[in-house]
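User: Hello! My lab partner asked me to get a predicted holo structure for this protein. The small molecule is magnesium ion, SMILES included with the sequence. Please write out the structure tokens.
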Amino acid sequence: MSNDFLIKNAKEIQVVIDNNAPEIEKLDQEIGDGDHIFNVQRGIKLVIELEPIIKHLSMSKALNQIAMKILSGIGGSSGALFGTLFMTMAKVSNIDNGVDYKKAINMFADGVEAVKQRGKADVGEKTMMDVLIPVANCLKQGVEKKKDLKDLMREAIEEAEKGMISTKDLLATKGRASFLGERSKGHIDPGARTSQLMIRTVCMSILNT
Amino acid sequence: MSNDFLIKNAKEIQVVIDNNAPEIEKLDQEIGDGDHIFNVQRGIKLVIELEPIIKHLSMSKALNQIAMKILSGIGGSSGALFGTLFMTMAKVSNIDNGVDYKKAINMFADGVEAVKQRGKADVGEKTMMDVLIPVANCLKQGVEKKKDLKDLMREAIEEAEKGMISTKDLLATKGRASFLGERSKGHIDPGARTSQLMIRTVCMSILNT
Amino acid sequence: MKKFLNSTDDFLKESLQGFGAAHQDIITCHYDPNFIIRSEATKKGKVAIISGGGSGHEPMHGGFVGYGMLDAACPGFVFSSPSPDQMIAASEKVEGGAGVLFIVKNYSGDIMNFQMASEMMTGASETVLTNDDVAVEDSSFTTGRRGVAATIVVEKIVGSLAESGGSLKECKSLGDKVNRNSGSMGVALSSCIVPAAGKPTFELGPDEMEFGVGIHGEPGRRRDKVQPAQEITNKLLEAIIEDLKLEKNDEILLFVNGMGGTPLTELYLLYDNAKKTLDNKNIKITRSLVGNYCTSLEMQGASITLTKLDQELKKHWDSPVHTAAMRWGL
Amino acid sequence: MKKFLNSTDDFLKESLQGFGAAHQDIITCHYDPNFIIRSEATKKGKVAIISGGGSGHEPMHGGFVGYGMLDAACPGFVFSSPSPDQMIAASEKVEGGAGVLFIVKNYSGDIMNFQMASEMMTGASETVLTNDDVAVEDSSFTTGRRGVAATIVVEKIVGSLAESGGSLKECKSLGDKVNRNSGSMGVALSSCIVPAAGKPTFELGPDEMEFGVGIHGEPGRRRDKVQPAQEITNKLLEAIIEDLKLEKNDEILLFVNGMGGTPLTELYLLYDNAKKTLDNKNIKITRSLVGNYCTSLEMQGASITLTKLDQELKKHWDSPVHTAAMRWGL
Ligand SMILES: Nc1ncnc2c1ncn2[C@@H]1O[C@H](COP(=O)(O)OP(=O)(O)O)[C@@H](O)[C@H]1O
Ligand SMILES: Nc1ncnc2c1ncn2[C@@H]1O[C@H](COP(=O)(O)OP(=O)(O)O)[C@@H](O)[C@H]1O
Ligand SMILES: [Mg+2]
Ligand SMILES: [Mg+2]
Ligand SMILES: [Mg+2]
Ligand SMILES: [Mg+2]
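Assistant: Hello! Below are the structure tokens for the protein in complex with magnesium ion.
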């Protein structure tokens, strides 16, 4: 994993998110406050604008810059959560001398664990954790079991999709949707949807190389 | 003219105004502030509620009670104008010993003159004066020319209608519609319309006796 | 119609009752006839300042009754001028021996009803007529211009003079001066709904605005396509600046007024845009007011008022005021 | 979408600029990161009170920065919590040596961002979390209840204590107490439009209302047919009274809050209706507040907040305050 990889993926994610913007907007209007899509779009734009700055930085510094940009540029739940993800990844030791896919997966899993601490939500509470945690687990196990990278990417894509869909029938107990009680049921969680789209995009880009 | 005549006509006017309420409401919405119909309906209701009180009063006292009720109960331009009309009629001398139709017409003409002073509007300014002044003139001349009462009533109805219609193409120079300038053209004045309807009702009731 | 009310007949009464109860430290409401007076009696020898007009413009005028501003306010029905008995009853309560000054917005109905009140009451009275709305062409052959948000500026400044001992004549003449020094113009993005009517007074297309609108949902100068805030602001300012013949280095009060349904953020944005334009023209904003002060029920829209200031006006603007809707220095 | 703006990107910036310019006697706005502080520096030894949250609730919180209330406010994007850098920068400016108290509404986004700020900054800080919205069921397994209009009551009362020398611990504990003593519930008659979205967050039928609505256009407890104001009021009061376990002779603050698009007349009518019901129950209204304080953009609607009062709370409620949106005793 390189800084170029980060920027390239951010750009691909931007296209995917933009293409799905109306749906994501609607999801947060139904069970949230309607700002999720704008938060995410603003964040991605800011990350992409970092390209000239982070191009020549070490991986840890680059990730930290991205984390700070996300944290300060997004706001809301997603700013804190995605910011924490990257901030934690930046802190993983020994990442400035090359990051192979095992290392990358560990970084991601550490990040997800920190996000879980930050938001205090676990699987089953109808948040982005319903995507992030199963994907992190699947990837970690895949590494342990020394699975083929491409197979693993395909599994992760499936896992993300399953997690995202699972939020539909869940009762929200964390985040803004929890205020709705029973009325939160029947809608996919917006943060789960954006997380799933981002994960799919990154996995696809690895599959295509 | 008797107090019974006043109340009976107020009741008939109520029916007529209620039947035409949507049209009158629309007229004041187009070139005014939309309250004219409510002002007029409130005023008529209050006058009719006076019945038990004014039944046994002299004509001058009865008219004065009506004037005060209109003045305090309506507000807006129409409260001041219709209030002035009745207040002036109440002050005409010698009305407590019977009012024949000549006297009644003089009372009305005096009232209209006072309304004209109060509002400082003359014929051609797109207000109720475009109905009241021509009708008062027609009635006064009819009395001078000793016209047949019923013929005179038919003439007054026509005169009122002509005056009301004339306001449509006029440029408003007095009242709220004047603020619209050229945009006031093409709409009948609401006060002219209610005045015309009231005059027609009273004249018809005389024709039918 | 979606409003918080129980019946359109009781709307005004219940609202006044709530106002009276919520602000009993400052004002007292009287009913039948309706009027609002300060909870403290008028000082002997102080000119009593009384305003009034149709309801639906809250906090105007009841919200401005209190120390340093009005002695009484007479609310009519929604958008209908009050009736003479209200002004007469209020005058009797607040007259302090130095006469009554009526502050009246230039509408036929208001003028006639206040005039009848002055004729019917016994004590001395004078009237300041406000007609600051530059959207309407002025002319001595017509009713002339509407009185709108500058009425509040007149009430504040004249209220201060009365408090500091100004005579009836002095109050009248200062009021006229503030009115002459003020110009306003408004724009509506949506209509308002008179409770008794239950439906919007006018219909605006989804991309239309009413430019030069009055404060009763009366049509304005023209219907326009919605424009960026900076353009709207510039057009409003141009008309006012021309009318007041404002010049470089003139000092002004910039008053951005909401019509009731527009959030504060947008009013402050208009303030920002107006400031940019006035800064460019070197017109000095030395006093400011932003908020919903002279409203039209739930109408979305705003107006801008400029008042040319001098030492005297600034002094009376800054002096303490203690009312439900405007309070400072105390 | 009809709003006074030039571009949705510049909306917040221009609005803040206008706010800063219109109230430069009281506050100063800083940009990138955005925060609003008093124009006078914090007294040495005074606890600094900082609040913040998404924009779109004006005058909350910027309108409450000033003597006797907040030292700083951090506005996020519309309906998005501010980010940690804003709170950190504001803290650095207003810290007076006695620590920082954050007043945070109970939303995941706000909590996480304020938490990260406290972790990242150097000085001592405490947080008061407001969660007064009784429309939401409380539970330790969930996010719990929303923080809504009572946040302003907390800010006023804690602001007063801080001004009079209360320690960080005392301020935190008084804030928690005010929050515990407060309950709120709201109802929406129309939706609001997030500028970036350009269309209503939700659709309400012409005869529908959203009962128990939040302050971001989030759906509430249920969708109901519109009801007479007295019935709506009674339902809101019932839920709050039950939650606070209010009893005969309890003293309360009755706070009728507008959501932004509802005119004052209707808010006072709700006050009147609430007073009737509370009078009947012998619950004593000894303090009142009516107006648009905690809004949701241009939403039509209102909320009622009750705060159970004792001597301490009354003293701090009455003490002088001098901010853009709340001013008395000074
Ligand atoms: N405590 C939490 N833990 C994990 N994810 C959360 C939490 N709270 C909210 N989220 C996620 O954040 C998403 C909403 O993000 P966004 O709309 O940007 O912020 P906000 O809810 O503050 O408006 C939700 O869809 C959910 O996936
Ligand atoms: N100066 C005036 N002289 C005569 N009639 C007037 C004058 N001003 C207004 N009117 C009449 O009053 C009518 C409007 O009455 P109403 O709607 O009750 O009062 P307002 O205009 O105060 O809302 C107008 O249609 C017009 O006929
Ligand atoms: Mg959201
Ligand atoms: Mg009218
Ligand atoms: Mg009227
Ligand atoms: Mg949000």
